[in-house]
Amino acid sequence: MHSQKAPHTIRMHSGDNVAIVANHGGLPAGTVLPSGLVLGGHVPQGHKVALTDIAAGAAVIRYGIAIGHALAAIAAGSWVQESLLAMPDAVGLVNLPLATVKPTPLPPLEGYSFEGFRNADGSVGTRNILAITQTVQCVAGVTDFAVQRIKAELLPKFPNVDDVVALDHAYGCGVAIDAPGAEIPIRTLRNISLNPNFGGEVMVVSLGCEKLQPERLFPPNVIPIQDTRGTGFAGPPGVPPLPGGVTRSGAGGVVCLQDDAHVGFMSMVQSILRQAEIHLARLNKRQRETVPASELVVGVQCGGSDAFSGVTANPAVGFCTDLLVRAGASVMFSETTEVRDGIDQLTSRAATPEVAQAMVREMAWYDAYLQRGSVDRSANTTPGNKKGGLSNIVEKAMGSIVKSGSAAITGVLSPGEKLEQKGLKGRLIFAATPASDFICGTLQLAAGMNLHVFTTGRGTPYGLAQVPVIKVATRSDLARRWHDLMDVNAGTIADGTASIEDVGWELFHLMLDVASGRKKTWAEQWKLHNALVLFNPAPVT
Ligand code: CA
Q1: pLDDT at 515
Q2: What is the DSSP letter of 155?
Q3: Distance from first CA to last CA of the chain, Å, rounded?
Q4: How far is CA 533 from the centre of its chain?
Q5: Distance, CA 46 to ligand 1 centroid (Å)?
Q6: DSSP string, 25-50
Q7: How far is the CA of 402 from the centre of ligand 1 (A)?
Q8: How far is the CA of 301 from the centre of ligand 1 (A)?
Q9: How many CB atoms lie within 10 A of CB 28?
């Protein structure tokens, strides 16, 4: 074990000419490192120290790759500050290696299970939640009012139901709904409504005049067709609608606030409560049963990253990703701008050339999307990232990609697309999303994740109402200060008290406990929920 006082630096790759300072508070000038190197000045925690003299123009190497070129000579023992680095150009998207690396298949991991809710479509939920889909932001206030009443008056009658969640968002009207890209928010909202944690009970609140009409959002087998008598929406053919614009039953139900039957606000609220009770009664019949760990669909992402993200938390998550794949589970990694600089690593690791080409297609789409805004991937890094020691997106990307572990990449999803339920086991999927925490989480929900893992170095209280979010701290200092927000401390890896494998296994076991409902994450205990944020690359009118 390294004491806090002993100087401790971490080099990621034998070819690196920089290492990061692990000590809390950094190291002062004159510190003698175990190698005998003397620090020429103070180096903050998480920041890089030059291990050799680096000539002007020479590559600064971390993770075995050039994360930048020195703008001036950097003496051994000096702090390699962001201002001393020129960022390399992005890797091109032509002539990339396609499926050239064949990772040795990992041995299957058998005998692990959790207690989940099986759904008719073959998916498995980790929570039993009534989700109320909204076609448009206009109805959000009314729905939220109704949800408070549902929680107070109805939920206690249905003890097997964990929660009621309004799928609140800013979309649905005032948008160019047929513009290229508009299909992304529409399919995102549709697929979130079908997330395994909602048990197939689609309930919709619509305004009535919005562009995103319920029948555009859902195919007719998910919600009933519009009633031709103008009394809102009908149930299955031949079943007369109930008063108040409420469907009798069917696969789903829609409450339309502009329905003529609604006289006054309370009439709308009553309609929502009546419809909710139908769904709650059905959800209440769901029971947890033992299912194999292969039913996990895990979305991994990071936010508020620092230089330790790629040293502690993300490698531990990557080890756990390998465990999950070995157990037959599906794992999604995302955050296009944070893996873009490692595209050659990813395309070479693809299971087939088609998967590699699909990744290239997503990267090219995103490059063009950023270009429309006259920026590139370098716009990703935040002031907090830089304060935490990450000089640029290349360095950040190398630390981000390790969350994907070492298995072959077997599939690609475009933003808002849903993972097929019937598929191969042990899938590692690149789900293309922006790196923005809320948009990435929203798109991974649409992709069908039933558990979320989130690493953070600077610290964020991020949480989602729809699936449990396990948060992993990159540093022990953060884990100590945020002891009631962080679920796992990967800082023990930098402290030298645990290995990457130790923390990876800890996370794996915690996932099975959380998925089973035996444990709640801190974000669940405090009910910390971030908003759904739909990714809409289309114009707003
Ligand atoms: Ca993120």
Answers
A1: 98
A2: G
A3: 59
A4: 12
A5: 19
A6: T-B-TTPBPTTS-B-SS-B-TT-EEE
A7: 14
A8: 5
A9: 12
d(CA 483, CA 477): 10
8 A C-beta contact, residue 1 and residue 495: yes
Mean pLDDT across 387-416: 94
Element spanning 21, H or E: strand 18-21
pLDDT for residue 332: 98
Whole-angstrom Cα distance, residue 335 to residue 356? Answer: 17
Separation of alpha carbons 19 and 9, rounded Å = 6
Q: Using the mean position of ligand 1's atoms as its centre, give its distance from the Cα of residue 423 in Å.
A: 27
Cα(213) to ligand 1 centroid in Å equals 31
Q: How far is the CA of 244 from the centre of ligand 1 (A)?
A: 42
E strand intervals along 51-175: 59-62, 65-70, 85-86, 113-118, 124-125, 129-134, 163-167
Q: Averaged over 158-168, what is the pLDDT?
A: 98
Ligand 1 centre to CA of 430 (Å) is 14
Residue 106: predicted pLDDT: 85
pLDDT of residue 237: 42
- Distance from the alpha carbon of residue 24 to the mean position of ligand 1, in angstroms: 25
Tell me the two tokens of residue 230. 């103008």
Dihedral (CA of 163, 190, 471, 378) sign: negative
- Tell me the two tokens of residue 250: 């069917």
Residue type, 462: Y
As a whole number, mean pLDDT of residues 122-148 equals: 98
* Mean pLDDT of the chain, nearest integer: 92
Cα 303 to averaged position of ligand 1 atoms, centre (Å): 4
Sole residue written with tokens 């640029």: 392
Taking alpha carbons only, the member of 257, 247, 245, 246 closest to residue 236 is 247
Q: How confident is the model over 181-199, as pLDDT tens digits?
A: 999 999 999 999 999 999 9
pLDDT single digits (tens) 331-345: 999 999 999 999 999
Give the tens place of pLDDT for each residue, 224-265: 544 433 344 444 444 444 444 444 333 358 999 999 999 999
Count Cα neighbours of 341 within 13 Å in the Cβ-side half-sphere. Answer: 26
Residues within 5 Å of ion ligand 1, judged at the Cβ atom:
301, 303, 435, 437
Strands 85-86 and 252-256: unpaired
Report yes or no on whether pTM surpasses 0.90: yes
Q: What single-letter DSSP state applies at residue 181?
A: T
Q: Compute how many other C-beta atoms are within 10 angstroms of the C-beta atom of residue 478.
A: 23
Task: List the structure tokens of 317.
Answer: 């998550």
Rounded Cα–Cα distance for residues 144 and 309 (Å):
37
Place of tokens 């498995």: 124
pLDDT for the residue 252: 52
Q: From ligand 1's centre to the CA of 39, what distance in Å?
A: 33
SS3 for 182-198 is CHHHHHHHHHHHCCHHH
- State mean pLDDT over 447-471: 97
